[in-house]
Design brief:
Layout (H helix, E strand, L loop, with lengths): L2 H4 L5 H17 L5 E4 L6 H9 L4 E6 L2 H10 L7 E5 L5 H7 L5 E7 L4 H5 L25 H7 L2 H12 L4 H14 L5 H11 L12 H12 L1 H15 E11 L2 H14 L19 E3 L9 H6 L7 E7 L5
Parallel strand pairs: 1-2, 1-4, 2-3, 4-5
Antiparallel strand pairs: 5-7, 6-7
C-alpha cells in the first residue's frame, strides 16, 4: 500500500500558513532556516514544507523506527537537506545540536498515535482490531500494554484509567481486569475489549465504545506521553530563535490542556505582583498566534476523519531570554 494513500496530513495548509513566516524571516535575515518536525510520522507535513521552502533545512524526530524508515523513503528527494533522528520529541535540543544547528525557526508537534501505528493492526493500538496488546510507539523500548494489564494493581489501573482516559467506570474496569487475569493472561486487544464490554452496564453500552478511553489510557501510560509532552514544550521553546514559531496539534483533551497551560506560562509576565511597571526582564518572551484552540473545518473533518478531534495552538518567540 502506498503510504501517501493512507496518510493525509492534518491541518496542513494552516500549519504552513502559521510556520511559513518564521522560515521566510530566517531566510530574509541571511540565516539557515531550520524546520523541526518533532513527530515525523510518515513525513506528510515535512514533504510539504521541503517542497514549498527550497532553502530550509529539516530535522525530523520520531521514536518509531518504522516511521523513520517510511519517512526516509518519502523524503529521499530532499536527502541533502534533512536529518532524521530516532528519539522522543522531548529530545529536540540534542537532535538539533547533533544535526549541526544551534536554533530552530519553525517546529511542528503533531501529537498522539500516528496513522502508521493505527493502520498496522499488529501494533495493538486499535480496539477495533484483535492484535497483540503492545501499544509501544517504539517497539524496541520498554514495557507493553499487556505488561501493564498483567502487573499493575487495581489501584494503579484505576488511576491511569481515570487520569489518562478520563474514564468514569475506571474502578469497575480495573476490578474486571484483575478478576479476568486470574483466570487467564490478557495478551490480545480482543480479549481486553471483551472484558471491558462485559463489565459495562447495559444502560451505558450505547454511550460510545467502552474500550476507547481505556485503550487511550494504556497507550499514554506505556509511552509516557504526557511526561514527554511536559518536557517537550519547554525544550522546543528553548530552541526557538526570535521570530521562531511552534505549532502543536493535539487530539485529546488531556494533551490540549497541557499545551494550553504551558503556552499560558510562556506568554505571562514574570513581574512580581504590585510593581508599578514591568521591567524588561519580566516581559514575556513569547506571544500566542491564535486565540484559544483552532479546530479543523467541517470540510477537512469530512475529508479526513482523523482531523475531527484536532486542536491547534501556536506560539511565537518575540524576544531573547533575559
Amino acid at each position: 500500500m502506498n503510504h501517501r494513500d493512507i496518510h493525509t496530513p492534518v491541518l496542513l495548509e494552516r500549519c504552513v500558513e502559521l510556520l511559513g513566516p518564521a522560515l521566510r524571516h530566517a531566510v530574509d535575515a541571511g540565516r539557515t532556516a531550520v524546520y523541526v518536525d518533532g513527530t515525523l510520522g510518515m513525513g506528510g507535513h515535512s514533504e510539504a514544507f521541503l517542497e514549498r521552502f527550497p532553502d530550509i533545512r529539516q530535522v525530523g524526530l520520531d521514536r518509531d523506527p518504522d516511521a523513520l524508515r517510511i519517512a526516509g523513503e518519502r523524503l529521499a528527494p530532499f536527502a541533502d537537506r534533512i536529518s532524521l533522528v530516532h528519539t522522543v520529541y522531548d529530545g529536540i535540543a540534542e537532535a538539533l545540536r547533533d544535526a549541526g544547528h544551534d536554533h530552530a525557526d519553525a517546529i511542528l508537534y503533531d501529537l498522539g498515535v500516528s496513522s502508521l501505528q493505527l493502520d498496522e493492526a499488529d501494533r495493538g493500538f486499535a480496539y477495533a482490531q484483535d492484535a497483540p496488546l503492545d501499544m509501544r510507539m517504539d517497539p524496541t523500548q520498554g514495557f507493553t500494554a499487556a505488561d501493564v494489564v498483567a502487573t499493575y494493581g487495581e489501584g494503579d489501573l484505576r488511576r491511569i484509567f481515570e487520569r489518562y482516559g478520563e474514564e468514569k467506570l475506571a474502578a469497575r474496569y480495573a476490578r474486571a481486569i484483575i478478576a479476568a487475569r486470574q483466570a487467564a493472561p490478557i495478551a490480545r486487544s480482543g480479549q481486553l475489549v471483551d472484558i471491558l464490554q462485559a463489565a459495562t452496564p447495559a444502560a451505558l453500552k450505547n454511550a460510545g465504545h467502552p474500550a476507547k478511553r481505556v485503550f487511550q489510557a494504556l497507550r499514554i501510560e506505556v509511552n509516557g506521553e504526557l511526561a514527554a509532552l511536559e518536557r517537550a514544550i519547554p525544550a522546543a521553546l528553548g530552541t526557538l530563535a526570535v521570530g521562531g514559531r511552534l505549532v502543536v496539534l493535539s487530539y485529546q483533551s488531556l494533551e490540549d490542556r497541557f499545551v494550553k497551560r504551558l503556552f499560558a506560562e510562556a506568554t505571562t509576565s514574570t513581574a512580581p505582583p504590585g510593581l508599578p511597571f514591568e521591567l524588561p526582564e519580566h516581559a514575556p518572551q513569547f506571544r500566542l498566534l491564535v486565540k484559544g484552540a483552532e479546530l479543523a473545518s467541517d470540510e477537512e473533518a469530512a475529508r479526513n476523519p482523523r482531523a475531527k478531534p484536532v486542536r491547534l495552538r501556536a506560539i511565537e518567540r518575540i524576544r531573547e531570554a533575559a
